[in-house]
Structures
1.
Amino acid sequence: MKNADVHHPIFDEIADLARTLGHAHRLVLLRHIADGELAVEQLTQLSGIALANTSQHLQHLKRAGLVQTRRDGKRVLYRLADGPIENVLTALRSLANHRREQIRELINDTMSRPDRLENISREELVRRMRDDEIVLLDVRPQEEYAAGHLPGAINIPVGELEERLAELPREKVIVAYCRGVQCVLSADALAILRARGWASRRFEGGFPEWLTPSLDVDGMDYESG
Amino acid sequence: MKNADVHHPIFDEIADLARTLGHAHRLVLLRHIADGELAVEQLTQLSGIALANTSQHLQHLKRAGLVQTRRDGKRVLYRLADGPIENVLTALRSLANHRREQIRELINDTMSRPDRLENISREELVRRMRDDEIVLLDVRPQEEYAAGHLPGAINIPVGELEERLAELPREKVIVAYCRGVQCVLSADALAILRARGWASRRFEGGFPEWLTPSLDVDGMDYESG
DNA sequence: CATTCATTCAATGTATTGATTGATTGATAG
DNA sequence: CTATCAATCAATCAATACATTGAATGAATG
């Protein structure tokens, strides 16, 4: 027996639908439209999306059968199509909230035991990097990063951190590091990150500790083999 | 008052989630995983998706928090994460079904009055093209199409129609045309399209009628202005 | 500790998607 | 008929997403 039923075109149709919902602008537009019929320009004002762009997203929604239109003089009014559209939006929203809460718990775990757990050991670092639970953040100046850094680390100097927070994934724990124990860059970074709600920790030893594996590790050979 | 609350990051998070569901492969994988823990290779066999590709999609799902993993010997087992995931899938599926039914009604409308409505008038054609309800299909050979065709028409010669059906949108009525009343190409096309479940009609006059506006039109001037 | 198996990573090419700009269409008012 | 306003189209560019390939990792087995 082949697995023919699995390639059923319904999966493509559902995927198309989901992709249509896969853009914040379209979700915003849908939400407004759900409150009642609106013209394109009203929607641009409510949403702050540029006119032509709004029009394109609206037509995407129309193609997908999620909204319908009618003309009223010069204006084109958009309304929600019938069908269980709001169910889908509600379900998505509640799933997103569920995830948010889980992340919040993670943050609280970390923050309720502030200093004991602020530092992360090398073993935990390696393990959780492998399991993709954390993101390594190198907060040293760009030149130092270029000269060498921990594998997988992304580089955002502390000075630029505030404005580049968008580059960090919301659902992971951020582990910041800098030049080592005596360096305060990563501590500053933690302050910023925690103020903005990220779960964050510190790899205290920084780049130097990474280069000297024998300090607190038992039998792993990195460069000696 | 600004519309700041509208740019709430929750919209981005929901959009990310929706995009994750926006690919047929991931939906297929999710469906299988929902039946119980499965290893990557089992999933490749059930789904027919290439190994590395399966792995990538699975990791996409994991990043999005929809599945979780554990190791069992050499294998990595994927299971559904908790949270209202199945609600979302159910809601999406029922919305997709709703749309399917609407399309089916449309088809039945067309097919139950076969000959009366098989032909589409020029006015109806123009109006429904404008409202984006139909897709114009030119089934003549590629050279004739290149020499001139109706605005917006796509060209698929009848001979290639079977294998290129995927290029046609499922949710619109297909209007086929060819060289004119005495030409049977578009009639053949209709047979193929209807057998595959498309709502389809025929612009009987074909390309020639389009070029001679005065035949059955009242006051529109096309090339006489 | 070399081999094998399951999975993941990394790199590449290609296709899609989205934002932006300026031109165009459709409907109304003067 | 022309001017004006609302909306859409068309074209372009940058960014992203996917599939595919071959290499690399991690765990078990002999």
2.
Amino acid sequence: MRKQDITIYDVAREAKVSMATVSRVVNGNTNVRKDTRERVLKVINRLHYQPNAVAQGLASKRTTTVGLIVPDLTNLYFAELSKGIDDIALLYKYNIIITSIENRLMKEDQAIQGLLNKQVDGIIYMSDNLPEEAAEAFKRTDTPVVLAGTKSNHQEFPSVAIDYMKADTEALNLLYNDGKKNLALVLDDPDTVVNAENRIPAYKKFMADHNLGEGHIYSNIKDHSDGYNLYSQLRQDGIDGVIVTRDITAVGILNAATDAGTKIPEEMEIVTASATQIASVVRPALTAIRQPLYDIGAVAMRLLTKLMNNEEIDQKQIELPYELLKKQSTANK
Amino acid sequence: MRKQDITIYDVAREAKVSMATVSRVVNGNTNVRKDTRERVLKVINRLHYQPNAVAQGLASKRTTTVGLIVPDLTNLYFAELSKGIDDIALLYKYNIIITSIENRLMKEDQAIQGLLNKQVDGIIYMSDNLPEEAAEAFKRTDTPVVLAGTKSNHQEFPSVAIDYMKADTEALNLLYNDGKKNLALVLDDPDTVVNAENRIPAYKKFMADHNLGEGHIYSNIKDHSDGYNLYSQLRQDGIDGVIVTRDITAVGILNAATDAGTKIPEEMEIVTASATQIASVVRPALTAIRQPLYDIGAVAMRLLTKLMNNEEIDQKQIELPYELLKKQSTANK
DNA sequence: AGAATAGCTGTAAACGTTTGCACTTTTTGG
DNA sequence: CCAAAAAGTGCAAACGTTTACAGCTATTCT
């Protein structure tokens, strides 16, 4: 096995010091005389010594590894969040163990337990929803956790997100001012905290405030074909303006509308509540609530580094600014 | 610290056995009497004992962790590959450490060294290109490596991919049979092995075989706006049929064409050489070489599990079938 | 019944680091 | 120049497992 030919012992022997000193050199401890440090470094280079991170992890109880829990890697929403996380993790020299939980073999709490067994120093949780068992699992551990791009009604968990209620209200207002009065809300999952506690209340309040009646909420519309198939229902219900949680779903509606000869935005306006790359490359391009996904990820990871170092946190719930990006799926005024 | 309140010792004491026996129970070793096994399991459940994977890794020299090297998480091509990898990894109980190398702070060989230091049991490499230093790094280690969705001229590395040359030729043939004679090749990076040794030769050979002249190869066209901006050049060069490596780039060309009033596919046909979700949701939908990305990832991971178990491999270079999926960006015949 | 064998369990040495403590050497200040 | 403080170093125990190896206890066979 070539796997670990040279250990800290070999270096110590060659450099005629103890392993403790080698360890100090490796870890940049200042209590080493300049010339011994250089001598040790020379040996390290000559032997191509590389510390065994597993042994370091066991001895120091820090693995410089963080866990990422994500529902679906191929959902660009999470991919863009992950990118922000990854960049900051690299900066702070953390590795990332990624656990995808879309696969129903892997429940949230199992995923969490798996990460804890691997002794990750922290966890970033990105699923839209935080089931009770997952919250329990987090509460049982000392390992810090940050929610990224989502919210929980557990106020104890630090999170980074946008003000979904405000954003949705602003989007509804845009539609309303464009003269659309038969507004609908299209949701992926009605039971996530973001939807149940933010988007739905925002929608209901808006409808009530403007005397627009009950309105229409469509649930469990999750991908392109769901959106495509929903379109005829929307027409039947006389919808002329719609907010859609996922942009890929919005594209489905858009394509169905185009195929049916419906004029967008004249006859129907579409706004997506989370924009990825996709929203901007389809035609007509989608008006969108642009969440700063990369930044949410980056800030979440930065926050986690602080928690892992037991630094003081000024605020646990961070809200980043969003933008309402007007494109071709709403009136050009 | 609650981090590790209970160890194998605690279980051993409570169950009145040695830690060795507890270890055997945890690892499903059969050499344990039924009633002691049950007694131990009961204690494990009562104390909520969870093995420390880091200690296990150090003692057993297996971490049940594999490393993934990927250029860009937000590129759906790699995301879809990753999904296949992830599913099989879950099945075989491996965790995944993901390392993104798009960030120029992280070179390939550093990424590899980082994974090796973490003592991963295997590595899947997904970048389009395998730089010489990376190949060297792989050769120095015993840790098995599999290339997924890419090729290398290092035949010693197992890989899973499609026959790019054949696929491209078939696509060119489609354009040719639709009557397009001024064919172009649009590449992300001309120096990757896949492009330099497969796509470009296939293109040149096709052009020569059909007396179509030198042809036009456009390089370093990597994203939507690159594609969009390239369009006028294509027109200027009289191109009427084009193969594009990335689908997001193809969409850029498509959108520019639509904006310019060019009829697709009548005046120009577009085929993308790698289809993700995006290719199918734009309008007109893109004709594409559909690589079985999920399967490539899954097969690569399966292959890696065999290598990690020192099982015999019947073939190192695996080629999976692709499909030429005709959509609206080529003639409907 | 006694020997051989198989099944079960415990002991203790790894695995490759980090780190508290004690000790020695050097530096500093009066 | 000496005492006190600071800097540098090594020793050895820890981190929480796995796993030879040995030993002990049933079981099987003749």
